[in-house]
């Protein structure tokens, strides 16, 4: 067999392997600690209205996971929409224009840079996959200027006009297990600049983002009730007691499946089915 043909078959076979075998990743079903394939995970995702997939924003492998799940769900001929934390809800028109092909990539990159501080190239393949396959994208995030204001002055500082596009009343719920993580995160993020920073405001800002993303998901579902939403967010927005819980509190009844990449907080058996359904581990660099 000629070398070029042999190489072609090697590549073809490699691409057809499940995710867990393709690049050394392992997918674990957290409820019973059993290893599963990408296809098995997506079979469960077929029954969910919302699939939350987390990320560490600058981790290339995590974005590859996003692509793998979306591509697999597409093969199942499901009506899909992709929700993204990286875009703020007041830029939905610009996002729609790019998806429709009426805005160039060069122009959209400028929009993206206003919305998100991480490199466009980390996310480009996801956006282009959606654009090329006419998969709607939802700008999930709350406008940045409002989040910053709440983090510094509290939710009560917002004017009635500023609140018109936000969920009603955002409080820091001390009974939510998510709040305990926020306390740890607050200490790490602001350990050098804690003066003038109030944890309650920080917690309100994060809760505002969670409830805002939940609200934007809920609003989209009302316009496209049979569409499965794949939401791509930072890990601590995607766990069950963050955006999914805010959806439930708002009265939006959506079944969800939560898929998270492994981080130190979830390593060594620390991932709980109360927070995660599937955990994806990656090989060391």
From TrEMBL:
Residues 42-247 form the Haem-binding uptake Tiki superfamily ChaN domain. InterPro entries: Cofac_haem-bd_dom. It comes from the Bacteria. The keyword Transmembrane helix does not apply. Residues 1-23 form the signal peptide. Keywords: Lipoprotein, Signal. This is ChaN family lipoprotein. It comes from Geomonas diazotrophica.
